């Protein structure tokens, strides 16, 4: 398997003048393979978002480095932030083409790409709707299309479903995992939700409290297309893994 | 059940029986008054006040040379509208205010937005902007009159200066208030600073800029009128201050009413622009 992204002993210390420095990340190394989804689980404030900021090139790590597909950081990374961040004054389609527009792609070329995504992923007919008229789940779909439209090799998802109600969240988890598989993307998913990690990911990395390291790597050996949020609840392997991760997080939280 | 019912104290049973009438539930009806009702009261209030005023003068409760009187204002209005003087003065003051508004608001908004492009420039200018913001801007009037003379130019310059400061501060503030995650998103997409500015900062700051437009209608009129108070021989400000020195209170009131009409017209134009802007 080819590594599409490599984290090599990454560390991050925030130096704020006049204040104590904050060591967010101690030492994190892992490889993301082509077509794989990794879930990152860890206590709040342990540096997960910071890790994404580094991968997407927004921040320089203090130590170590990330390499994306052998190239420069941020070049082929689609970063979906915690909020959907749709531009309210733009229509759905104009939001979806944002990344292409920034890369200088003309509307005549970007609109067909966006149209195909919008139609394939359940928002046909909403091309010209304004975001305020959409439900939370639909807005999140648009944000995902915007992330995929410029065809990044790696997709970073920072707690993408945390603001949605249970039913919408469950539907979107399965949908997004399917979209990522169809588009043959690799992804890293940050989540608080162990069930979500086990539904969507091939591997789970459990992070310690700040300064964070990887305390456990768990391979989920159930094929992704054989999993859905409901079926998993009745699978004993799912239960074992759930408890393992739960205990990790609990003991780290108590420490 | 029946046992508990009969053993419960009578007061409690009464309460249950009369529920909804007085003991529980909302104490007032949440109804919105109809437009017609509101309009009737609004006109009624104006007519009532004017009638009371006229009556008070007629009965000698208040002195006409200190307060004026509605019938006198009306006569004056007929007079000055007939001679074209009122329209001429109103048009002049409106022209000064509108010119100052446009020049000041446009340049101020553009500069305030542009400061986002230069964190260095913004930091350097910061204390000066705070000082200007706190300053009662009308205090600059005498300086502007000295620099630009007693003619039309100084009134426009004063309105421009005040609206410029207000628009610049609002636009800069608006640009700073744009969600920093939107900037993060644009950066992660590989956008240049300028592209980020055009795509998220300028549209995101628009609500602030438009609300500064509203403030600036008032400020532009203040600039024009105070300029005329200080040094002029034309315009509504001159008309009001000149009539004031003569204790011609009816003309003072008429000038004030004309100013209100000018202001309302300017607000109407802004409302219209805003509605069109929102449609896009
Ligand atoms: N720009 C920054 N300057 C200083 N400290 C920061 C900065 N960004 C994040 N931190 C700190 O780093 C830690 C990790 O933050 P974050 O990556 O947002 O955590 P998570 O996403 O895992 O909840 C937190 O303690 C936070 O306060
Ligand atoms: Mg976070």
What's a concise summary of this model?
Chain A has a single domain (3-81, 154-254), classed as Rossmann fold, CATH 3.40.50. Chain A is 36% helix and 24% strand.
Descriptive overview:
The complex is a heterodimer of chains A (255) and B (280). With 255 residues, chain A is an alpha/beta fold. Chain A has one domain: Rossmann fold (3-Layer(aba) Sandwich), CATH 3.40.50. Chain A has 9 helices and 9 strands. Chain A has a 9-stranded mixed beta sheet with strand order 4-1-2-9-8-3-7-6-5, sandwiched between helices. Chain B is 80% helix and 0% strand. In chain B, helix 6 packs parallel to helix 9, helix 6 runs antiparallel to helix 11 and helix 12 runs antiparallel to helix 13. Chain B is globular, with a radius of gyration of 28 Å. At the A-B interface, helix 3 of A face helix 10 and helix 11 of B. The site of adenosine-5'-diphosphate (ADP) has 12 residues of chain A, from strand 2 and helix 1.
Helical stretch tally of chain B: 13
Major sheet: arrangement of strands of chain A: 4-1-2-9-8-3-7-6-5
CATH-wise, what's the superfamily of chain A?
Answer: P-loop containing nucleotide triphosphate hydrolases
Q: Give the CATH architecture of chain A.
A: 3-Layer(aba) Sandwich
Please describe the structure with a list of short key phrases separated by commas or semicolons.
heterodimer; A: 255 residues; alpha/beta; Rossmann fold; 9-stranded mixed beta sheet; 9 helices; 9 strands; B: 280 residues; 2 domains; 13 helices; globular; disordered N terminus; binds adenosine-5'-diphosphate; binds magnesium ion
């Amino acid at each position: 398997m080819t590594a599409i992204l490599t984290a090599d002993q990454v560390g991050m210390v925030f130096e704020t003048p006049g204040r104590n420095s904050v060591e967010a990340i101690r030492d994190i190394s892992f490889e993301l393979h082509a077509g794989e989804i990794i879930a990152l689980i860890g206590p709040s404030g342990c540096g997960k978002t910071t890790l994404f900021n580094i991968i997407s090139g927004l921040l320089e790590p203090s130590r170590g480095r990330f390499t994306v597909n052998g190239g420069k950081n941020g070049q082929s990374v689609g970063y979906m932030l915690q909020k959907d961040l749709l531009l309210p004054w733009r229509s759905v389609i104009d939001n979806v083409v944002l990344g292409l527009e920034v890369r200088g792609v003309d509307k005549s070329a970007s609109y067909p790409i966006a149209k195909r995504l919008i139609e394939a992923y359940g928002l046909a007919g909403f091309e010209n709707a304004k975001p305020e008229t959409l439900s939370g789940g639909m807005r999140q779909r648009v944000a995902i299309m915007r992330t995929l439209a410029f065809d990044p090799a790696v997709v970073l998802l920072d707690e993408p479903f945390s603001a949605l109600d249970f039913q919408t969240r469950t539907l979107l988890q399965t949908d997004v995992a399917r979209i990522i598989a169809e588009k043959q993307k690799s992804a890293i998913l940050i989540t608080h939700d162990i069930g979500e990690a086990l539904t969507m990911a091939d591997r789970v990395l459990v992070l310690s409290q700040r300064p964070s390291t990887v305390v456990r790597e768990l391979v989920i050996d159930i094929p992704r297309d054989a999993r859905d949020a409901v079926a998993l609840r009745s699978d004993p392997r799912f239960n074992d893994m759930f408890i393992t991760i739960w205990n990790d997080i609990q003991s780290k939280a108590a420490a | 059940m029946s046992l508990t019912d009969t053993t419960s104290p009578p007061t409690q049973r009464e309460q249950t029986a009369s529920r909804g009438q007085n003991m529980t539930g909302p104490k007032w009806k949440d109804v919105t008054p109809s437009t017609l009702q509101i309009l009737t009261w609004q006109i009624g209030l104006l007519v009532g006040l004017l009638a009371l005023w006229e009556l008070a003068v007629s009965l000698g409760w208040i002195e006409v040379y200190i307060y004026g009187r509605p019938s006198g204002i009306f006569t004056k209005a007929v007079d000055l509208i007939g001679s074209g003087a009122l329209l001429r003065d109103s048009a002049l003051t409106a022209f000064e205010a509108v010119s100052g508004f446009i020049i000041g608001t446009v340049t101020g908004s553009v500069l305030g937005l542009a400061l986002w492009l230069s964190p260095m420039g913004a930091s350097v200018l910061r204390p000066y902007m705070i000082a200007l913001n706190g300053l009662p801007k009308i205090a600059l009037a005498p300086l502007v009159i000295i620099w630009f003379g007693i003619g039309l130019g100084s009134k426009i310059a004063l309105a421009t200066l005040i609206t410029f400061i207000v628009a610049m501060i609002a636009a800069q503030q608006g640009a700073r208030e744009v969600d920093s995650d939107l900037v993060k998103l644009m950066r992660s997409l590989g956008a240049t600073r300028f592209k980020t500015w055009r795509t998220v900062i300028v549209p995101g700051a628009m609500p602030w800029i438009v609300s500064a437009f509203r403030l600036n209608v008032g400020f532009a009129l203040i600039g024009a009128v105070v300029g005329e108070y200080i040094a002029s021989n034309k315009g509504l400000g001159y008309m009001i201050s000149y009539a004031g020195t003569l204790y011609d209170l009816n003309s003072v009131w008429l000038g004030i009413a004309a100013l209100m009409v000018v202001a309302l017209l300017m607000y109407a134009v802004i409302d219209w622009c805003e509605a069109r802007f929102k449609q896009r």
